[in-house]
Structures are given as C-alpha cells and as structure tokens.
Write a structure and sequence with these properties.
The protein is α/β, with parallel strands linked by helices and about 400 residues long. About 40% of the residues lie in helices and about 25% in strands. The protein has 11 helices and 15 strands. The strands form 2 sheets. Strands 7, 8, 9, 10, 11, 12, 13, 14 and 15 form a 9-stranded mixed beta sheet that branches. Strands 2-3-1-4-5-6 form a 6-stranded mixed beta sheet, with helices on both faces. About 0% of the residues have low confidence. It binds 4-hydroxy-3-methoxybenzoate. 4-hydroxy-3-methoxybenzoate binds next to helix 6. The site of 4-hydroxy-3-methoxybenzoate has 15 residues, from helix 6.
Length: about 400
Amino acid sequence: MQRRHLIQAASLAAIALAMPLAHAQGNTFKIGLVLPMTGQQATTGRQIEAAARLYMAQNGDTVAGKKIELIIKDDTSLPDVTKRLAQELVVNDKVNVLAGFGITPSAMATAPIATQSKTPMVVMAAATSSITEASPYIVRTSFTLPQVSVAMGDWAPKNGIKSVVTLVTDYGPGNDAEKYFKERFQLNGGKVVDSLRVPLRNPDFAPFLQKVRDAKPDALFVFVPSGAGAAVMKQFIERGMDKAGIKMIATGDVTDDDQLNDMGDGALGVVTTHHYSAAHPSALNKKYVEAFQKANKNMRPNFMAMGGYDGMRVIYEALKATKGQGGGDALLAAMKGQIFESPRGQVLIDAQTRDIVQDVYLRKVEKKDGQLYNVEFDVIKAVKDPGKAK
Ligand code: VNL
C-alpha cells in the first residue's frame, strides 16, 4: 500500500515537473485524444476520430501560428488504461489538451491527471452528469443523461404511456437515465412498475426482456451506451414485445445513427429523446453529414462524432483566443462560455459548470429515401444539465 502511494506521489511529481516544459514547446500544439478504438466501445472511438479528422481537414492544421498535432491512443475502454495513457500523454508527449473519453469510468479515472497537471480535458463522449464535477479542468461537448431523460419523462405520460418498466446499463449514465426519467415520469402521474439494470460488459438482454413481457407495462424505457442499441432492438423485436402491446421509448443512444439503418423495420416508430440526429434539418447539419460521409464511406455520423467535432471546435477557438500563447488555465478560460451554432443546433459551454447547454429533440424512427432515421418532431430549447441544479 505504502509503496503504491509512493509511486503515485512520484508520478504526480513528474506531472508537476512536466508542466513548465509543456508551455515552452515551440510551434506545435498537441491534442491527446484517448478513445476506445478496439473492444466493445470501438464504434465510439471510430466515430470521434473520423469527426476530429474532418474538423481538422476543414479548418486546417495550423492555428494561431501553431501546428496542431493529434495523438490518438486506444484505451480499449478500460479506465486504468485510460488513466495511464493520459498520464503518459501529459508527462512524455507534453500535450496541451486531453480529449476523448468514451465511457464514464474512463473520464472519472483521468480527472485527477487533468487537475494535477492543469491540463484542459475535453470530454467528447461520456455523459454521466457528475463528470464535470470531478475536475475543474473538465469541459464537456457531449451531453448528459439527465438532460435527455427528463424530456422523455414529460413526453411519455402526455402520449398515452401510463406505466413503464425501465431497463438501463448498470453504471453512471444508466443510473442517471433511470433516476431522472423516473422522477419526472412519476411527477407527471406515471407509474414505474419495475427498474431493471444490465451489466456493461457483454450484456444478455433476453432474461430482462422476459421479465418486461411478464410485467406488461405500456412501455419499456431503455438506456444502453452507444454500440449496444442494435442488440436490444433485435431482442425486443424477436421477443414480440411490440406485438404484446409494449412500446419501446429510449434515449437516442439506443437508436444510434451508427447502427440504426441496420436495425430493420421493427425499429420504425420508436420515439427517443436526444441532442443529435443525422437527420437534423439545418443547412449546417446537411453540409456536415455530407462532408462526413464523403470522407468516411459507409458511415453515418452519430452523436459521438458530434461531440468530437464540436470538441475540436472548442479547442481550436480557445487556441485562437489565446493567440497560441496560453497555458492550461488560459485555454480553459477561453473554452468557458463559448457559444456557437453546431450541426446539432445552438450550443453553449456554460462558464460556471463547464457543461454543454443544448436543445433536446423528440424524434421518431421513420423511413426517408429507403433509410431509417431519427426524425425530429419537437424540441426543448437550451436545456441545462438538470443534474447540476441540485
Ligand atoms: C456513456 C454515455 C457512454 C452514453 C455511451 O456510449 C453513451 C458513458 C459509449 O458515459 O459511459 O452512449
């Protein structure tokens, strides 16, 4: 135990020593992008990498006189690996910014590194409310589960859904989704019959869905992380839940644009709440989707790509605002309060919470030009993370 503490103390000291060097490294500006590029969350890494590269291709790789260097590391979505890689990026590579972070445990494990080294850490994917509170150097460009789940708690009871079973992945974002959906749904007079949680690693949905069938609620509310949606949808359809009169409602993580088109017509009509759809009908989004698909054949940008693209924007603009001269604190200050039109809609990086404020959409899976899309039919403007209000 003592030995471990000594090693930890030594590595933190190494981080502290590396700091002044980081600010004197000449003409490159390094972004350390830590992502799951292999393993269960690999699609998240692939989407974010593609979006970051697209942003750089569109906006150049020289900003405020600095050459931008993107260093991508594969953490295989194991938090210990994420932390080690982030530490190496800070100490050895002397990155100016850390970014990426596919899942909540990875972001949480890295937060102390950002704090100790005063390195801004842009969370592009992970979405548990409390992440931004884990370090004052964290800025988030993805979303939070409370942000999107509350909207469903309002929509469902107004649309004939009076009883629900919730089914979420058993970790940070799932617990947030369950809690915030449930609270709002019950406040609106809805009844939650049962709350089921499935493990993050290699989940088998079959036994849980059998329970739902037996409970016969009006609807099943689902959150699973990006990449797991197709499996839930497949099982839901195979077990004839819809025919048994049980609707699926979910956060948009389930009808993920990365997989939606392969889910089949059984997904038609599923209503979800989320902050990004590839079908968002703005001119800016149409241009973005077109450019993304031109650069990445057979790939549709999903909400993870959106977090990566806007994350790069936040970093680029902070570098511009500090005229290429800023250290971690100056860059962080220049990230706070950024307000801009994103392909997802208008967004703000709240200067107080460092979390993203954005529009949340009601969407329904529909067929457009022979392809399945999340088609937006209503919007709640400028939603702050409800998890911060408490
Ligand atoms: C998380 C949240 C990850 C939502 C996700 O996909 C997601 C997380 C990988 O915070 O771990 O869709």
